[in-house]
Specification:
about 270 residues; alpha/beta; Rossmann fold; 7-stranded parallel sheet; 10 helices; about 15% strand; globular
């Protein structure tokens, strides 16, 4: 046993949706560094191509390819599946990262903010996974399962509010769906796990993490006193996708710096004083 065998991904092929920015890009870089061939897709194909070029310039053991892919519609899902099939006959890893958010005060939260967020974050995730299952099953073995990693959020576990009603509900759905799929696909040797990130620097969180001062302010409210870094996502992905995570399914990794266990304190201890 050695670290390369536990966390290396040489010979593996992965698809990362929403891989041009934020957590998706962090994950894609980690997979390339570990030796995987990584297909990066998002609605902006040119951005994916640019990221793939950057990753290929690292002189890492893996490689990257970028192209357009939209999982917010049924037609988009089917087109992405066909593009994947055109590029490869095997798929070992699927990272469902594409998503969107919406924030507004409770009394003003619009109707279409639910449809748009749930359609991408939940419906698209489910149907892309469904359509790629034949490829994942084909590559899976008892000792080395195929891997699905869904990106949830700590906001899907903790009732934080923040005006992101549809986003929080969608991520709670992602987490529960992860467990359902893990149960149903275990017999096919396909593991399904989720990340539940806290604050990371991304386009989605740019309103709060765009500069160092903003990140410091956000970090002060995190138990571990900082926002997430690319190494935090990389470590989780290499664990879940490598041999080291082959016996784990239905798990939700709380990559949130402790936000997932924050409480208001011990009410009985407070009452005794």
């Amino acid at each position: 046993m050695d670290l390369t065998s536990l966390f290396g991904l040489s010979g593996k092929t992965a698809l990362v949706t929403g891989g041009a920015t934020g957590i998706g890009r962090m994950a894609a870089e980690a997979l390339v560094l570990a030796g995987a061939r990584v297909l990066i897709a998002s609605r902006k194909g040119d951005a994916c191509e640019a990221v793939a070029a950057q990753l290929n310039d690292m002189d890492a053991p893996g490689s990257a390819e970028g192209f357009a892919g939209d999982v917010s519609t049924e037609e988009g899902v089917m087109a992405l599946v066909q593009e994947v099939k055109n590029r490869t006959d095997k798929l070992d890893i699927l990272m469902n990262n594409a998503g969107r958010s919406w924030g507004a005060p409770l009394d003003e939260f619009p109707y279409d903010a639910w449809d748009k967020v749930m359609t991408l974050n939940v419906t698209g995730l489910f149907h892309l996974t469904q359509q790629l299952l034949p490829m994942l099953r084909e590559s899976a073995t008892e000792d080395d399962p195929a891997r699905v990693v869904n990106v949830g959020s700590v906001m899907g576990e903790v009732p934080m509010g923040d005006g992101a009603y549809s986003y929080s509900a969608s991520k709670a759905a992602v987490i529960h769906l992860t467990k359902i799929l893990a149960k149903e696909l275990a017999g096919d040797f396909v593991t399904v796990n989720a990340l539940a990130p806290g604050p990371f620097v991304s386009k989605m969180t740019a309103f709060a993490t765009a500069d160092e001062g903003m990140r410091d302010r956000v970090g002060k409210d995190v138990p571990l006193k900082r926002v997430g870094r690319e190494e935090d996502i990389a470590g989780c992905m290499l664990f879940l996708c490598g041999r080291g995570g082959a016996y784990i399914t239905g798990g939700v990794l709380p990559v949130s710096g402790g936000i997932n266990v924050v409480t208001s304190g011990n009410i009985f201890e407070q009452a005794s004083h």
